[in-house]
What we know:
This protein has four helices and three strands, in the order αβββααα. The protein has 143 residues and is an alpha+beta fold.
Amino acid sequence: MDDLEQLYQEIILDHYKHPRNAELLAGDVVQADEENPMCGDRIQLSCQVKEGQIESVRYDVQGCAVSRASASMMSEALQGLPVEQARELIQSFIAAMRGEQELNPAWHEDLMALSGVRKFPLRVKCATLAWHGLAKALDKGAS
Ligand code: ZN
């Protein structure tokens, strides 16, 4: 393992052990569930949108380290963004995990730590679980 891979490993472990924003919101929020039966990961998302902007993203996730770390990173990366920008980032991130484009260092920096996941096709669904879930929640919020 080289230094960069080791650093990425540490970032993933840090989010796994100290998840950010891991609690569900109550009240006027949109919610969605998503699961990844291949691995047994499940997530419940709640998201608050005000005036076209994501005020907060919270979740309750059960699953492997990658799915949990990715949910934590997603909540930090998307909170505060305008909904349209968040949708673009979700799409780009999922495409990047599938190897269709590169991860962009201008996104939330911790996301780069997930770049190694692309080498493991089965893990890609773990890494994108929370992102698919939030996209669903945003779709609900728009209707
Ligand atoms: Zn998983």
